[in-house]
Amino acid sequence: MKLNKYFVIDFDSTFTKVEAFDVLADISLKDHPEKEARKKQIVQITNQGMDGSISFRESLERRLNLLAPSKQHLNPLINELKGSVSESFKRNKEFFRDYADNIYIISNGFKEFIEPIVTEFGIKSENILANEFRFDREGRVVGFDDTNPLSANGGKVEQLKRLNLPGDVYVIGDGYTDYEIKHAGLANKFYAFTENVERESVKTKADHITPSLDEFLYLNKLNTAISYPKNRINVLLLENVHPVALSLLKSEGFNVETYHAAMTEDELIEKVKNVSVLGIRSKTQVTEKVLANANRLMVIGAFCIGTNQIDLDAATRRGVAVFNAPFSNTRSVVELAVAEMIMLIRNIVDKSAKMHRGEWDKSAKGSFEVRGKKLGLIGYGNIGTQLSVIAESLGMKVLYYDTEERLSLGNAVKCRSMKEVLEQADVVSLHVDGRISNTNLIGAKEFAMMKKGVIFINLSRGHVVDIQALRENVLSGKVAGCAIDVFPYEPVSNDEEFKSELRGLPNTILTPHIGGSTLEAQENIGNFVPGKIMEYINTGSTSNSVNFPNLTLPILDNAHRLIHIHDNVPGILAKINQILADHGINIVGQYLKTTELIGYVITDINKEYDKEVIAKLKAIDHTIKFRVLY
Ligand code: NAI
Fold first, then answer.
1. pLDDT of amino acid 1
2. Is the pLDDT of residue 227 over 70?
3. What sign has the CA pseudo-torsion 408, 414, 418, 420?
4. How much is the pTM?
5. Which atom of ligand 1 is nearest to the CA of 406?
6. pLDDT of amino acid 548
7. Domains 332-516 and 556-629 share a fold
8. What is the mean predicted confidence (pLDDT) over 147-156?
9. Which strands sit side by side in the sheet containing 587-594, from one edge to the other?
10. Does the Cβ of 382 fall within 6 Å of ligand 1?
11. 8 A C-beta contact, residue 537 and residue 298
């Protein structure tokens, strides 16, 4: 593309996330006995070069002496650097290809390792301005071309002078020497690039701070259409979600803010205003009122299993997709259930308590193996099925009842009613969901159906069991042991006393709703939910969304994607297509799915489009939200 503008881009910590010399030190000094000492010295010398106490050339010479690099180190260095290109540069490869004539790389580093990295992006070899090594016969670096201005102080300024570019010049870099080009009057604007490092002294000098290349392209209208830079997408993560989520979202380029606790409705209303992505756990209530104030909200990530804390209908009607982590802690719950049934069937809880009181009660009475026993599962979803597999591998026979049609795994036997399960099982374990109709699913009548001496486990939801009936059945000996992790009322914080009629009962394990609480589960959730959020933002895919029609979409290839969310009324698809036809736009793929409340239409088009089409699509009656990806 012809353009009267030139883009001058720094290499270290801008084009790549790293400083090439740091990487080189790790390679060339790998087995060197003084590696750490030398690396420290190199940092000192770099600083001296920067603060002017020694000349840049001297600093370069001294650093190279300490690094002692040779040709054999170049390939591993280049490989490392190829893997370290800044994320936003990788995302915007088209920019480098389209404006190859106008892009210059300027660096005090060396062409030998810069060239292989940047030419892969289409940057021209002759547009790389950098130092060059001198090698001896054995391939050792013995110096550099000291006639090159970039080996001296003020080198970047001097190089730009010599280039004498015939148009506007924009400099992007993370360092003070990049700003100096503007200071010398050789550039129209200096953009401080902060994706990898932030230097206050550089930021204060900048015309713009660009947290990513997306922002630079957006500011200069170089991103062919109307898509939005990621750093302008605000993400708010509450309730201390796992740090892995923060780093995933940050490395995607989002502007992420975190808060250690839940927020009240009023706090959230204030905070959520310019937020596009909200991440919560189970304590933050996302009410209709919160959603009404969330003018830019696109997606809510629930970093947990349950989504009762979110007004899902209101979210749907406002076009906000909700994702959770439905199976990230499944395994943790299953392991606890297995452990508890073994402990209970051996009467370990009481035996251990007695030991603590000094009582030695050695006997096999009332102690059994789980092998060969019947495990009755009520609810055969994510957890029920996993437990089924593991229980079978312990030699148990599995029976299950689920209101939905579910595939039996292994040798598990499907029962036609809950009664059928309860009458046969030696161990009954509940894994139903928390729908209201499951309140008191297990009460006096159901306990009466069970075998005498049954082991009873509830790690699902508290209201599913009639606690008074459970207490009576434990005291009567009908239930030989029970493990309860969830309660009709649970303390809101660790400071509140736990009150329950189950306290003090024999062979009864009580745990504070920790079935899914393991570090592994937290990390799984931290990985899973951002993945869903990014997929939705980047591709429009809604697979596994709790409230949106589930659409898994092909990767966008050389097309624009129009994403239209609307009230589920007839005729919207026809209107979209009419507008596209009126503008002569060809559809390469189209996907529609609806729920009771909304319709979700994805249209991939292969043509440049103008803003008028977008305005018309947005203006279709009953449109809730509209966005474009490309
Ligand atoms: P899921 O939704 O995959 O499975 C629930 C299954 O129960 C579904 O197959 C459903 O059809 C079935 N079901 C619902 N009502 C039923 C009824 N009355 N009779 C028979 N089947 C019925 O859920 P998942 O992931 O397996 O979780 C199960 C339960 O465990 C949920 O209540 C969940 O909240 C709870 N849970 C508890 C944790 C803890 O820390 N204790 C951690 C994770 C989940």
1. 56
2. no
3. negative
4. 0.75
5. 9
6. 96
7. no
8. 94
9. 587-594, 598-605, 560-567, 623-629
10. yes
11. yes
Ordered by start, the domain boundaries in the chain are 5-219, 233-329+518-548, 332-516, 556-629
Residue 305 Cβ inside 6 Å of ligand 1? The answer reads: yes
Mutate to test the pocket of ligand 1, among 431, 463, 464 (most ligand atoms within 8 A of CB): 431
How far is ligand 1, taken at its centre, from the CA of residue 81, in Å?
48
Q: Would you state the pLDDT for residue 47? A: 84
Distances (CA, A) of 589 to 544, 562, 583: 22, 10, 17
Helical H runs in 29-110?
A: 35-51, 56-67, 71-82, 87-91, 93-98
| Residue 433 tokens, joined | 């969901």
Cβ of 76 closer than 6 Å to ligand 1, yes or no, is no
Q: Which of 223, 232, 386, 241 is nearest to 300 (CA)?
A: 241
502 vs 469: CA distance, rounded Å: 10
Q: What ligand 1 atom has the least distance to the C-alpha of 434?
A: 32
CATH architecture for residues 233-329+518-548 = 3-Layer(aba) Sandwich (3.40)
Helix (H) or strand (E) holding 623: strand 623-629
**Percentage of residues in the chain having pLDDT higher than 90:** 86
Quick one: pLDDT at residue 497?
96
The helix/strand/coil state of 142 is: strand
d(CA 191, CA 206): 6
The amino acid occupying position 18 is V
What is the distance between the terminal CA atoms of the chain, rounded to a whole angstrom?
19
In angstroms, how far is CA 619 from the centroid of its own chain?
Answer: 33
Residues designated as active site: 461, 490, 513
pLDDT digits (tens, 9 = 90+) for 74-109: 999 999 999 999 988 998 888 999 999 999 999 999
Q: Is the CB of 414 under 6 A from ligand 1?
A: no
Q: How far is CA 586 from CA 444, 494, 540, 541, 580, in A?
A: 65, 59, 20, 22, 7
Q: What is the mean pLDDT of residues 37-60?
A: 88
Instruction: Please provide residue 233's backbone torsions phi and psi, each rounded to the nearest 5 degrees.
Output: -90, 115
Distance of alpha carbon 28 from alpha carbon 73, whole angstroms: 6
pLDDT > 50? residue 262 = yes
Torsion sign (Cα): 619, 623, 625, 630 = negative
Which CATH code fits 5-219? 3.40.50.1000
Quick one: 332-516 is in which CATH superfamily? NAD(P)-binding Rossmann-like Domain (3.40.50.720)
Q: Is 404 in the pocket of ligand 1 (CB under 6 A)?
A: yes
pLDDT higher than 50, residue 595: yes
Burial of 293 (0-12, 13-18, 19+ CB in 10 A): middle
